[in-house]
């Protein structure tokens, strides 16, 4: 039998449904792969071998009884450690939640279990999803399988790296300012941010409540669409969940794979067409645009003048919401508790707990957000940022009156070496320069590999109107059909 760890999720699902492999065999192969390579990659914070095998056995038993199963039944999946999983450690890669085991599952985890997927474990990330490199994890960084001395992106670097290292065929991430798409771009994988409210935030440890969006990570566009279809949909437990049917993203991906984009208008974002990007990234991007034109697409240059203000607006809105959301981590109800020796006040215990439990980037953003919300500065900072958010939304609305989707590079640069940007937070924040506008707008966006620059992956971003997630999958799949997928260098060869 072909090595199942190198197969796509769709191929693995087909193998299991035909009876050519059992779900237990598939799970075991991936668990063994994790055991063999993850010491070098560090994609996982927790591997649930016992739970994964139990879930796989349940799928095999259901199939033996002739029960009808979902299209991803028996397929392994890795889950970002910011998503609650009942009885399994969920730490958000922070010391303040070390060892915490939630008493409930997030909605998307419930849907994964109901679909028969096999959860392998929890993946590494920047602490509380705050970062662009996974260097801010309290438990050490994740390494990029393309080059173990470089970052895998962030905050969901662990989920993306698990795919590129062939430890899992599918993974779940969350995208607040690009944390699914940017890791996808620098690891040569596919990362999709659904429409905000299209996937439930119930059970997601909140960073920025008006921006956080769970979504699928995969090695192919079709696989991402299959996972998207499983986790998406209205959830009454999430007040921001959209009570509308999920677009047929799987059909759109399969249609796009046919390579016909006749009549599709692509908006080339003028503001993202060159400035700040590495030459190799721009070269791969423009070659991909030409490939899409050959498939019948029409390219229209679109100006979105307020996109240039997205980065500063985001870094006022997101930290402001984080300062409020993270106030609950105080050592009183759960998690780390420091200094409670009977001689200190509650306020002192809370202060000592937060000092010991939060890392430097989380502290930086809490301080920034608290300042932006403080009396006398609210209107000058947070209020102004929200006005910019409205202008960016208008740019998107105006653009989508002329074109079907917008396109840009996903990131301005390829994966950078560890430590090269941590001394300058602004340089780190630039990693999300092209991804942030979509989060402020709330629409869907996807990153798909489009080539190499200096031997490292480059990502191509497709942005669509809200609740038109199918459009981005169609274009992304068409590009994938034209340029192919990327294969990282063998980890075994570098052992």
TrEMBL record:
Transmembrane segments: none
Domain of life of the native organism: Bacteria
Keyword tags: ATP-binding, Ligase, Nucleotide-binding, Protein biosynthesis
Glycoprotein is among the record's keywords: no
Quaternary context: Heterotrimer of A, B and C subunits.
PANTHER family (UniProt xref): GLUTAMYL-TRNA(GLN) AMIDOTRANSFERASE SUBUNIT A, TRANSAMIDASE
Name this polypeptide is given: Glutamyl-tRNA(Gln) amidotransferase subunit A
Taxonomic source organism: Actinoplanes nipponensis
The gene coding this protein: gatA
């Amino acid at each position: 039998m072909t090595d199942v760890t190198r197969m796509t999720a769709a191929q693995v699902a087909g193998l299991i449904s035909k009876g050519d492999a059992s779900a237990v065999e598939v799970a075991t192969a991936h668990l063994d792969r994790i055991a063999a390579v993850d010491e070098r990659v560090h994609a996982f914070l927790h591997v649930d071998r016992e739970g994964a095998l139990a879930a796989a056995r349940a799928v095999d038993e259901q199939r033996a009884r002739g029960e009808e199963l979902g299209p991803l039944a028996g397929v392994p999946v890795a889950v970002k450690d910011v998503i609650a999983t009942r009885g399994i450690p969920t730490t958000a890669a922070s010391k303040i939640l070390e060892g915490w085991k939630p008493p409930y599952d997030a909605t998307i985890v419930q849907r994964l279990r109901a679909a028969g997927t096999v959860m392998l474990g929890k993946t590494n990330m920047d602490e509380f999803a705050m970062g662009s490199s996974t260097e801010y994890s309290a438990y050490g960084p994740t390494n990029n399988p393309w080059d173990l001395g470089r970052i895998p992106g962030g905050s969901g670097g662990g989920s993306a790296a698990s795919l590129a290292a062939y430890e899992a065929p599918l993974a779940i991430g969350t995208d607040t300012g690009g944390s699914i798409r940017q890791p996808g771009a620098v690891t040569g994988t596919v990362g999709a941010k659904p429409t905000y409210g299209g996937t439930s935030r119930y059970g997601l440890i909140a960073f920025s409540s008006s921006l956080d969006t769970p979504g699928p990570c995969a090695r192919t566009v079709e696989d991402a669409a299959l996972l998207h279809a499983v986790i998406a949909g209205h959830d009454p437990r999430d007040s921001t969940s959209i009570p509308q049917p999920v677009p047929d993203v799987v059909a759109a991906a399969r249609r796009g794979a046919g390579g016909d984009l006749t009549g599709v208008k692509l908006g080339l974002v003028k503001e993202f067409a060159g400035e700040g990007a590495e030459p190799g990234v721009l070269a791969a991007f423009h070659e991909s645009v030409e490939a899409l034109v050959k498939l019948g697409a029409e390219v229209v240059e679109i100006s979105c003048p307020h996109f240039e203000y997205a980065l500063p607006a985001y870094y006022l809105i997101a930290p402001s919401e984080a300062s409020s959301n993270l106030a609950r981590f105080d050592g009183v109800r759960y998690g780390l508790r420091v200094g409670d020796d009977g001689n200190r006040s509650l306020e002192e215990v809370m202060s000592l707990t937060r000092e010991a439990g939060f890392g430097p980037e989380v502290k930086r953003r809490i301080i920034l957000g608290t300042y932006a919300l403080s009396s006398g500065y609210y209107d000058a900072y947070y209020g102004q940022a929200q006005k910019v958010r409205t202008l960016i939304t208008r740019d998107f609305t105006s653009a989508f009156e002329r074109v079907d989707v917008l396109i840009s590079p996903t990131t301005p640069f390829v994966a950078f070496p560890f430590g090269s940007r941590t001394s300058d937070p602004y340089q780190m924040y630039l990693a999300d320069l092209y991804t942030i506008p979509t989060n402020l707008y709330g629409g869907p966006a996807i990153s798909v590999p489009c080539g190499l620059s200096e031997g490292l992956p480059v990502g191509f971003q497709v942005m669509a109107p809200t609740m038109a997630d199918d459009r981005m999958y169609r274009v992304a799949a068409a590009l994938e059909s034209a340029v192919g997928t990327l294969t990282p260098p063998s980890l075994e060869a570098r052992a």
